[in-house]
Amino acid sequence: MNLIETSQAIKEGRTSLGLELGSTQIKSVLITDDFETIASGSYVWENQYKDGIWTYPLEQVWDGIRESYKHLAADVFSKYHQPLVKIGAIGVSAMMHGYLTFSKNGKLLTPFRTWRNNMTEAATDELTELFGFNIPQRWCIAHLYQAILNNEEHVAKIDFMTTLAGYVHWQLSGEKVIGIGDASGAFPIDEQAGNYNAEFMNLFSNMEKVKPYPWDIRAILPKVLKAGQPAGTLTKEGAAMLDAKGILASGSIMAPPEGDAGTGMVATNSVRKRTGNVSVGTSAFSMVVLDKPLRKVHRDIDVVMTPDGSPVAMVHTNNCSSDINAWAEIFKQFAGRLGIDLQPDKLYEALFLVAVKAEPDAGGLVNYSYLSGENITKMPSGRPLFVRTANCKFNLDNFVLSQLYAAFAPLKIGMDILMNEEHIETEVLIAQGGLFKTPVIAQQILANALNTPITVMKTASQGGPWGMAVLAAYVREKDSGLSLDDFLDQKVFEKPETLTLNPEPIGVEGCEKYIKLYQSGLPVEKTAIDMLVEKNSNGRFLGGYLNGI
């Protein structure tokens, strides 16, 4: 659309808004009927580690949403000289899983426990055995059952349990619903029924430790919806929560709220069977849409759903780019001491480019990017750790490559299980995330690490909120008769701009050597966790060798 056409579309409300609450940013993206981004906004935030819990205060959720929306609305007005009064459809996405429970009067019963908390091992072991289905530590049902095992007082008061996206959607629309992709990280889904697995719900309800509670698991979870189904409308109160100026009108169609994994699949056109994608950021995960069931239960592979309800094999790692970001900040500070103000894009480009000259195995340097615990390698909490021997090849080139390898290492370990034991194949994996803002480097390293061609699209660095906007637009076109995968192929990705890189044999071999050394050194990381303890705000030790002293 040209400027005049876009301005008219905004005036008439022929737009779709995608809002995504990610780990480090709350982003909003507005698109028109041609699926082009016409405006965006963002708000930077960080999770807090308080009293042994990774969390975000809900007050900041709304501060961030309003700030992100304010920037988007200002972007609209500055470009098109139109106030943002009507929006055709709105979709909310957020980081998946975690624990948000509310009482009958809507009061939050505990601080939000995010996906990053590795604190539910006892619950996951018991539930996985009961269901014969892998229950990861970060899933909502794992957090609920762990709270039961811990005899936490709030459990008896639960009236509603949801995800972050489900919570925001509830506040904006009044509807307690959830998209099937996000729902699959709350409780296992039955593909045929398109709903929570009824057999597993019965098993859970009949557990001795669950029976005494006054609620029913079927009643406290949100209703499951698939992509394209209307999920209510924006209420007057919801519009006021989005737009502090009070300009935005109510009535926008709401899409089913989804997790960031689902929006990543949409943004990379990876919802059709035998397609796959990789999303990298604070965490990293790969998603391969299955055309056949897994042969057995793997504790490192989750079975979740696409936004339209197809099963997906998911390898999820809790850590990816946070340690790289921390080291980049050190280099930025050093440059500042020299009077050089390095902007982020220039800084990361300068660092990543030196990795091209590194030894293929990073010269014997090893890094563990564990800001938090890591399920794939069985680490209960995080201690970022860089290790080298006295005679290794210690230089900047190898150091940066070791950081990039470390970001992808847990993902590679999980993907090796999927490929070598389940023989799951995909022609190519489509990648998205901030690490790919610098062209080629991280993409090539990921291709080498997974020994699979990696494609990056034009929207790689900001795909999630755009993907949610596309899902919102899909609800508006519900009468088209197209399935989600056909809708994406025929309408959204007619002419995708992509770059595909194939694995390099020398890089594949180098990464394999790095991973062997990485796995050999895992006991060092475990010792660091045991010996280097942390304290909460009350001075109590959290984990580690001194726990309980």
TrEMBL record:
Signal peptide positions are none
Instruction: Enumerate the spans annotated as Carbohydrate kinase FGGY C-terminal domain.
Output: 277-474
Asked if the record carries the keyword Transferase, the reply is yes
Which parts of the sequence belong to the Carbohydrate kinase FGGY N-terminal domain? 17-243
Task: Tell me the keywords, alphabetical order.
Answer: Kinase, Transferase
Q: Name one GO molecular function term.
A: kinase activity
Q: Which Pfam families match?
A: FGGY_C, FGGY_N
Q: Which InterPro entries match?
A: ATPase_NBD, FGGY_C, FGGY_Carb_Kinase, FGGY_N
Give the SUPFAM superfamilies listed for this entry. Actin-like ATPase domain (SSF53067)
Q: Is this entry keyworded Cytoplasm? A: no
Its BP terms in the Gene Ontology are: carbohydrate metabolic process
Q: Which family does it belong to?
A: Belongs to the FGGY kinase family.
Recorded protein name is: L-ribulokinase
UniProt organism field: Pectinatus cerevisiiphilus
